[in-house]
Amino acid sequence: MRRDRGFTIFLIAQTLSVAGDMFTAVAIPLLALKATGSVLQMGLLTGLSGVASVVTGLFAGVVADRLDRRTVLIVCDVARAVLYGLIPIVWLFAPQVWLLYVIVPLGACFGMTFQVTYVTVVPALVEPDRITEANGRLSASYAVAGVAGPMLAGVVAGAFGPSVAIGVDAASFAVSALGLCLVRPRPRGDRGPAPATGALSGFLDGVRFLWRHPVLRSLTVLLSFFIFVTLGLTDITIYHLKEDLGQTDAAVGTVLAVASAGTIAASALVGRARRRFGFGPCWIGAQCLAGIAVITLGVTRHVTIVAAMMTAFLFATAIAGICSMSLRQEVTPDHLLGRVTSAFWTVHYALGPVGAAVLTAAAEGYGASAVYLVAGAGCLLVAVAAAFTPVRQRWAPEAA
To answer: pLDDT-derived band of residue 372, with 50, 70 and 90 as boundaries?
Structure first.
């Protein structure tokens, strides 16, 4: 795959884009806190970004299927470069907090559109039997960017101020856009006519395809429950390390950084694992590993074991996630891929925020250990349920 120039450029552009997202995730809250001194302002901006992403998910698939996908990616990167580039320029004269309430949701809209569209481009950059490997490479780059991005953002923000860190973010999007100009996705044979539907109708097109495909239907239901019981685990782990184990902020950061190695390892192994064992065994096995890791978190008080189990959990979720994404790309007609991706993400993440709120509230009331045990049991329940659905198949059907 290193000889595939188009995919290599795309991989670099994606890594820069993700690193930019990480800069934003750190620098925007720091900037809001520095300007207002209010934690509430930080929370409002985060919530506003989340709402904008969910709403955008309803129509991002139609955009990806209706327009030229490479152009959509470039426009999203250019738009974010301009939007985030405005912040350091304005801050040179005086802080304007209201500007953040305009730029953050708009940036989230372009970010979600980018995420949906990039999924539809990958199959046009590699051979069909390399889709899983390509997604693994992309996932590994995200893991590296997810570790390096916040660290670099903190260093830059500490040395030069949060507004400068956001300026670096803007520059990363500009470089990513230039890189995407060099990518030439090849046309796929199943590319049908562009959808003439509106946002809601296009979203329902994706939902209908998911429902009619036996494996994707089961995955959507199972993952909705899985996300509900696991989305808040990072917050609970931070709480567990700080409150139960008395660890420092530096120790918390080290544990989470070490755990990211699980995602990197999964990204390197998932292609070969799926070719050898097939989709069903990989996906179900990953859910079992995730459940065992989370239950172990509930019965240990050693920081080293916490780090190891978080690494195992992220390894498992990366294996399952990459397999799931690759399957959607393989079995979905190209002209529907944007709408199906948008529908899949929106539906199975819809319960995530509720689950995160429930789990964190339960951890405060009953302790992190009890929540870990319940969440781990939920992961194992997903694995058992999957064994009685079409997900268990080694090779999924090509069409609904």
So the answer is: very high
Mean pLDDT of 23-34: 71
Tell me the angle at which helices 337-349 and 303-331 cross, rounded to the nearest 10 degrees: 150
What pLDDT score was predicted for residue 313? Answer: 95
Judged by DSSP in three states, 128 sits in: helix
Output the CA–CA distances (angstroms, integers) from residue 23 to 172, 251, 252, in the order listed.
Answer: 10, 21, 19
Residue 72 CA to residue 256 CA, distance in Å, equals 33
**Six-digit token string for 198:** 């509106």
CA distance 320 to 328: 12
Residue 63 to residue 348: CA distance in whole angstroms: 20
Sign of CA dihedral 31, 36, 42, 48: negative
**Calpha distance 8→98 (Å, rounded):** 39
Six token digits for residue 365:
């009331």
Q: Specify the amino acid at residue 22.
A: M
User: Are the CB atoms for 76 and 135 separated by under 8 Å?
Assistant: no
Distance, C-alpha 209 to centroid of its chain: 22
Q: Give the torsion sign (CA, 211, 316, 49, 107).
A: negative
Q: Rounded to the nearest 10 degrees, what angle do helices 249-277 and 279-297 cross at?
A: 160
Matching residue, tokens 């199943």: 190
- Reference 202, options 54, 64, 51, 348; nearest CA is 64
% residues pLDDT > 70 (the chain):
86
Taking the CA atoms of the chain, what radius of gyration do you get in angstroms?
21
Buried b (16+ CB within 10 A) or exposed e, 352-367: bbebbebbbebbeeeb
- Report the C-alpha gap between 339 and 347 in whole angstroms: 12
pTM of full prediction above 0.70: yes
Those residues whose C-beta lies under 8 Å from the C-beta of residue 318, and which sit 6 or more positions away, are 139, 143, 262, 263, 266, 267, 270
Q: Does residue 259 contact residue 306 with C-beta atoms inside 8 Å?
A: no
CA distance 139 to 156: 25
One-character DSSP codes across 327-381: HHHHHS-GGGHHHHHHHHHHHHHTTHHHHHHHHHHHHHHH-HHHHHHHHHHHHHH
3-class SS of residue 225: helix
Q: Are 256 and 269 in contact (CB under 8 A)?
A: no
| CA angle (106 as vertex; 98, 147 as ends), nearest 5 | 100
- CA-wise closest residue to 203 among 102, 309, 80, 58: 58
